[in-house]
Structures are given as structure tokens and as C-alpha cells.
Amino acid sequence: MAGRGSFGMAALLLGLALLLLAPLHRHYPRCRVASVAATAPAAPAAPAEPAAPAAPAIPRNLTIAIFGGSTTACGGASSRDNCWTYVFGRALEALTNSSVTLINRARGGTEADYFSSCFPRYLSGPKPDLFLLEFAINGGNVTRLVESIYRHTDIPVALVRQMACFPASRYAAGDPTARVSWPEQREEQRTAGYVYRLHEFDLVNELVPYYGSPCSRESLPKLFETRIAPGQHLGDLGHRLLGEFVARELVRNWGAINNASRRAGAPAGSTERESCFYADEGGSSANSIETAFAPEGEGWAFVEKVPGRKDKICWQSAVPGSRLVSVAPVNFDRSTMYLEYSNRPAKLRVSCGPNAAPGGSETFSEITALHGMNGTMVKSASLNGQCHGQRLTVEALDAAPDRLARVCGISMFASG
Ligand SMILES: *[C@@H]1O[C@H](CO)[C@@H](O)[C@H](O)[C@H]1NC(C)=O
Ligand SMILES: *[C@@H]1O[C@H](CO)[C@@H](O)[C@H](O)[C@H]1NC(C)=O
Ligand SMILES: *[C@@H]1O[C@H](CO)[C@@H](O)[C@H](O)[C@H]1NC(C)=O
Ligand SMILES: *[C@@H]1O[C@H](CO)[C@@H](O)[C@H](O)[C@H]1NC(C)=O
Ligand SMILES: *[C@@H]1O[C@H](CO)[C@@H](O)[C@H](O)[C@H]1NC(C)=O
């Protein structure tokens, strides 16, 4: 992943360099560079000098949608008031005198891919002025999420970069391998930033060094929560710095973020057909995962995570070996499943076969999540392989009452 990311960056830099060296020789080989360069904004038409449009004002009613993982769900903060998103909202109101509405879509443990699937689910309700993405730790394909957003809306996107020093004990012990943790996650976000020229509000570069070197014995206890999962989440000071920093930078960069001529071109339309089954979010673009699957025998049940709440409901099993089978045949070349875990994750086997019978099916994936902490996590699992006109089976291999298996959504992509 990191290798692909740096290739993308090198290609982008080369593309920009080639733009400066234009015109290209017509025998110059066509390659990836050309397609990257093609997303650059058109150079201003030769002699015409149109007056620069004024920078847009910050709206009096400002709506900001945030996608992210546990830090954005307030992980590590001692109270809601100390959480970065609330600090950010208050700081932004103070700086702009606007009335700020935050639509916080964060879910603990999610990767960017969780949100890129079936993206129109998130477009019901008030239209945001900006999307903020905070996947600095959990990673996932942030580029794909940005493309999902830009295929459905022209609302600008900016990135929020924070950090983790987990497990803290490795950093405290000076373990040199701890220093290079999370490189892929950083690179995944960076790549999206380069490709789509997004503003990145980078707490790590801008502020963390003032508290000591990142993840050092000196800075870690100041910036991070150190009781429950030491080093995993920012603590109150880290949350406050992040919230104030993002508000300040957003105001300072509002014109540039909203400047259409600084944006990379919209992504090409997708050649894949997507079908989605979710129970949450209630958007019209997804079918219910409740009707997509049925348990085979005892074990799986469709449950509300919190009684009375309709937004987080999943198929759940505590019975080892129990099977959940798609009601109808499914179609995909690539698929993403959303699994929720509490504390100890169950191991799942996902397979596809004519009758989803044991032995007669192809195993796509055995999914194991590693946890360093308690709490509910959402994991997106990628299934690559052909499953056309067959049924899909999820088997909870080692589920138990303290090791629940939960299947909460699935997106399927078929080419053509
Ligand atoms: C928008 O960006 C272009 C290209 O960087 C710049 O020339 C122009 O002045 C910007 N417009 C505003 C209003 O900032
Ligand atoms: C802002 O929102 C309030 C309440 O929703 C509304 O009364 C007001 O007209 C809005 N103002 C603008 C400028 O849109
Ligand atoms: C802030 O907004 C309020 C209400 O919209 C207004 O009365 C006040 O003058 C504004 N303050 C500033 C500094 O713009
Ligand atoms: C991420 O998504 C983009 C856009 O869909 C795709 O081109 C790219 O190959 C993906 N990267 C990885 C590492 O899967
Ligand atoms: C998770 O919870 C269990 C049971 O409450 C506890 O024994 C364990 O120490 C917790 N783990 C962490 C990392 O907090």
C-alpha cells in the first residue's frame, strides 16, 4: 500500500513537471502519468485575463459533515465537551460568528471503505458545506471515499490528520519498531490528498512537536489518553488542540478549499455496479440486510444493538459454527462486508457456493480482527473473488456469548 502510494505521488509530481515542460512530444509514450496530468485544472486561456472571483464568504449557517473512526466518536476524551469535534464546533462559531451544525458520522474502528460503499446513504438530510475526513489511524482506501463523495456531490473535502502511539508501552520502552507504526494508514490518507489536492489539517506536523517528539515519553502522557488503551486515542489536551487547530485552519483556508479552480478534476464514472444491504442509516439507496440473509438452523438473529435505536442493527450470533446464508443468489467480483465486534472478535468464514453447502463452496476469506482494547469496533472486510449467481455463507467459527459475531452490512460490486 505504502509503495503504491509513493508511486502515485511520484507520478503526480512527474505529471506536474511534464505540464511545465509542455508541449509534450507527440511520440511521448502514453502512460499513467498522462491520466494523472489530465486531472490537473485547465491552464488559463491564453490572453484573456478574467477577474479573479472573490473568495466565498463563510456561510452564516455552516454545516459540516465528519467521517471518521473512534477519535471522531470522542474516544479518549473525558467528556463530550472535551471531544475534538465539539471543541471544533465551538471554536468555529467563535471565529466566524456563524451558527455551526455538525453531522458526525464517526464509528469506532471504521476504515474509510466503510463510508465509501453506497455513499448516497449519507446525503439525506441537510446539505453540508464541507466534508471532513479523519482516517489518519484506521486508514482504508481514503482515495476511494473521496471519489465516492465527488461522484455524488461537489461539496469540498478536507482531511484531518491526527495520530496514535499504540501500544504506548512499546514507545515508552523505546522499541524502534514502534516508531514506524501506522505508515500505511498515513500513506492512504496522504495519497488521497495528493491525488485530489485536498487540504490536510496536520496536527502531527504542526503542533505535536511542541510537546516533545511524537510518541516520546515526554509528549505521550500529555497528548494521549493513558488509562484505558494508552496511546490509542488523544487525551483531553490532544482533543482540544486538534479541535482548535482544525477550526483555525479551516477559517484561514476557506477560500482555497472552496476555490473550484484549485480542485482536481472529478473522478471518472465507475464502471462497477454496486448493490448494498445495510440496516443502518436508513438511506433509500440500500436494501435491508435483514431481508438479504437468513439463518440456517439455530444461532443467528437480527438484533438491535441498543433497544429502541434503529440505526445500528446487525445479524448476530453467539453460537460456534452457526451459519448465515444469503436468501437470494448474489453477484460480485469485489465486495466489502461490515462486521461489528465487541471486545473479543469472533472468527468468521465467508464462502460462496451453489447451495452454500459445506465442502461445495469456495472460501473467500477467514476474517480475524485483532483488538488491543474494549468497546465496539466496526471492521470492513474485503472479499475479492467471483460470486455470480451463488449464495453467500457466513459462518461464525468460534462465536460465544462473550465473542459475538455481527454482520451489519455488505456492498457488492460487479463489473460492467
Ligand atoms: C483560486 O485559485 C486560483 C489558482 O490557484 C487562483 O489564481 C485564484 O486567485 C484563486 N481564487 C480565489 C478567489 O482565491
Ligand atoms: C440559519 O438557520 C436558522 C435556523 O435554522 C434560520 O432561521 C435562518 O434563516 C438561517 N439563516 C440563513 C442565513 O440561512
Ligand atoms: C454575530 O452575530 C450576531 C447575530 O447574528 C450579531 O448580532 C452580531 O453583531 C455578530 N457579531 C459580529 C462580531 O459579527
Ligand atoms: C483505492 O481506490 C482507488 C479508487 O477506487 C483505486 O484506484 C485504487 O486502486 C485503490 N487502492 C488500493 C490500494 O486498493
Ligand atoms: C477489557 O475488558 C475485560 C473485562 O471487563 C478486562 O478484563 C480487560 O482488561 C479489558 N481490556 C482492556 C484492554 O481494557
Description:
This is SGNH hydrolase-type esterase domain-containing protein. Residues 1-26 form the signal peptide. Keywords: Signal. It is a single chain. This protein has 416 residues and is an alpha+beta fold. The chain has three domains: 11-37, no CATH class; 61-262, Rossmann fold; 272-415, Jelly Rolls. The protein is built from eleven helices and 15 strands. The chain has helices at residues 2-20, 32-37, 84-96, 112-116, 142-152, 168-172, 183-196, 203-206, 220-223, 236-257, 289-292; strands at 61-68, 99-104, 130-134, 157-161, 199-202, 272-278, 293-296, 301-304, 313-317, 322-326, 330-342, 348-353, 362-367, 376-396, 405-415. The strands form two sheets. Strands 6, 7, 8, 9, 10, 11, 12, 13, 14 and 15 form a ten-stranded antiparallel sheet that branches. Strands 2-1-3-4-5 form a five-stranded parallel sheet, sandwiched between helices. Strand 12 (348-353) and strand 13 form a beta hairpin. The longest helix has 22 residues, at 236-257. It is globular. Bound molecules: 2-acetamido-2-deoxy-beta-D-glucopyranose (5 copies). One 2-acetamido-2-deoxy-beta-D-glucopyranose (NAG) binds at residues 228-229, 343, 373-374.
